[in-house]
Amino acid sequence: MAVDYIVIVVYLAGMLAMGWWGMRRAKSKSEFLVAGRRLGPGMYSGTMAAIVLGGASTIGGVGLGYQYGLSGAWMVVTIGLGILALSVFFSARIARLKVYTVSEMLDLRYGGRAGLISGVVMWAYTLMLAVTSTIAYATIFDVLFDVNRTLAIVLGGSIVVAYSTLGGMWSITLTDMVQFVVKTIGVLLLLLPIAVVKAGGFGEMKAQLPTEYFDPLGIGGETIFTYVLIYTFGMLIGQDIWQRVFTAGSDRTAKWGGTVAGTYCLVYAVAGAVIGTAAKVLYPRLASPDDAFATIVKDELPVGVRGLVLAAALAAVMSTSSGALIACATVANNDIWSRLRGAVRGPRGGDGHDGDGHDEVKGNRAFILAMGVAVILIAIALNDVVEALTVAYNLLVGGLLVPILGGLLWKRGTAQGALAAVAVGGLAVVGLMAAYGILANEPVYYGLLASLAVYVAVSLATRPTDEATLTAWRERLAGRAPEPQSEPAVPTPQ
């Protein structure tokens, strides 16, 4: 294992080095939170694919393949479809808004009265997403170093918190690019073909397993529908995803770079399901489907390759964890804390200071550190990753999907309708999870319907949004409104 250890240690040291490099580059709020809004197509595609393909997509995707066969790809497929829909239909308009958070978008659309409550819901989502990613370190470090769960979470979490706090989005973008390359090599180019060969090829896999393992819809229509509601729609509205869209250097980059990332997700989905299916042939009686990834890596891969593939799994977890962490801190600082202290500010670039001379880079860095510590502590206390992730996405979709998409697509939607939709949808999801169980499908179904009904009814019953607000909103969507402070002209990284 010595060679494998060296590979992992070099990888982790590289992550910290990029954090230090990012700290030197992130001199303004715009640089720190959205990488100066100037990523080119290459970096944008890589960082978008990296953030959505985390531990759940890698370890969980292989586990679903182990349990259901090729139809286990559907969870990650719906994530890819969400990124494709976001990129083709919404990303260009979102990028032109020049905001930092989803709640700022709601304020622009509805006249500045929807941000706080939506910020609280979005903060809860990003916090739980960061927690679930951090818990996944326990599985990987247990395979790597045979350390206990708490130490594994502290070790992995501390590295992510360190490079995210140092350089913000620039550090996260650079580390995501490395993580994207490592995942591509480790999972697609190495683990996938090796797993299929070890299982005897596709012919032997078909001979050894029931036919339903090769049925594209074997996982069940209701499950697929729920995945679409939670993950496809979740990709359309999550702060962690939008914050990456904000980094795009142009409308074209946001649209086509995201399309490439979404297509990559579809390939990754199929690869994970095939690896899991091969693992079922090799290890038909594992205690848990989620053990499939670690088992096949540990037992079937040669030295060195094993270290690289485990680094790929670590990369998958770190990319989602860091993206969720900076999203959580951005929402906490910009949407909640700034409002509570009575200093509501519009989106700004410039020198990184607000009107009171407050250093916003230092402020956001402090929030990342504070949220990072909180995430590590919650991850240590929490055991069930699936339940935590389900709570996060149920709150996001049930509470925020309708007012966000309604604001983008329906002129008649009002601030009162948006606030009612967030409150009723969020409370309905929480109440229904208590009644039906966290993992039940009903909470997101009925919560979403309640949110939609209230949004339409209240919007129609209240005065339309004033024309001045709508005019300013249309100007921002079209990219014609001037930015409060312009950024210096710099080359666009590719």
Automatic annotation (TrEMBL):
The name this protein goes by in its record: Sodium:solute symporter
Membrane topology category: Multi-pass membrane protein
Family stated for the protein in its record: Belongs to the sodium:solute symporter (SSF) (TC 2.A.21) family.
Keywords: Membrane, Transmembrane, Transmembrane helix, Transport
Domain of life: Bacteria
Entries under PANTHER family matching the protein: SODIUM-SOLUTE SYMPORTER-RELATED (PTHR48086:SF7), SODIUM/PROLINE SYMPORTER-RELATED (PTHR48086)
Gene3D superfamilies documented for this protein: Sodium/glucose cotransporter
Gene Ontology MF terms in the entry: transmembrane transporter activity
Record-level GO cellular component terms: plasma membrane
A UniProt-annotated Pfam family: SSF
Cell compartment(s), UniProt: Membrane
Residues spanning the membrane: 6-23, 44-66, 72-95, 116-140, 152-173, 180-197, 217-238, 259-283, 303-332, 366-385, 391-410, 417-438, 444-462
